[in-house]
């Protein structure tokens, strides 16, 4: 395994990140080789195989999040929620917390 890597949860892994080591299933079968660039398809396949984290090359993992990509992903995740629905305040609050986390924003105490 490369010394310059970051173990990233599958939920936080994004398309475009590069694997710093091979990813194996519980039986030891190779699912993805070192150096593979993750895509939506590969992330979905890893989830189906029960993988919960992946070793990602640190230089790619440390890249600043793309605001438009984050918003697109959140729109998909919260697609059953109307963004400014004041009656569903809990889901709106959760979305704001997730958005702040994904965009690495400082949250006032």
What does this structure look like?
- This protein is α+β, with helices and mostly antiparallel strands.
- It folds into two domains: 5-61, Alpha-Beta Complex (Molybdopterin biosynthesis moea protein, domain 2); 67-102, no CATH class.
- 35% of the residues lie in helices and 14% in strands.
- It contains four helices and four strands; from the N terminus they run βββαβααα.
- The protein has a two-stranded antiparallel ribbon. The chain has a two-stranded antiparallel sheet with strand order 2-3.
- A hairpin with a 5-residue loop joins strand 2 and strand 3 (30-32).
- The longest helix has 14 residues, at 89-102.
- It starts with a strand and ends in a 7-residue tail after the last helix.
Summed up, what is this model?
This protein is α+β, with helices and mostly antiparallel strands and 109 residues long.
Output the CATH homologous superfamily of the largest domain. Molybdopterin biosynthesis moea protein, domain 2
Q: Quickly give the CATH architecture of the largest domain.
A: Alpha-Beta Complex
Profile the largest sheet: 2 strands, antiparallel
Instruction: Please estimate the helix content.
Output: 25-40%
Average predicted confidence as pLDDT:
85
Instruction: Tell me the number of structural domains.
Output: 2
- CATH top level of the largest domain? Alpha Beta
Strand content: 5-15%
* Gross morphology: elongated
Alpha-beta classification = alpha+beta
Give me the count of strands.
4
Poorly predicted runs: none
Strand line-up across the major sheet: 1-4
CATH topology of the largest domain: Molybdopterin biosynthesis moea protein, domain 2
Order of helices and strands: EEEHEHHH
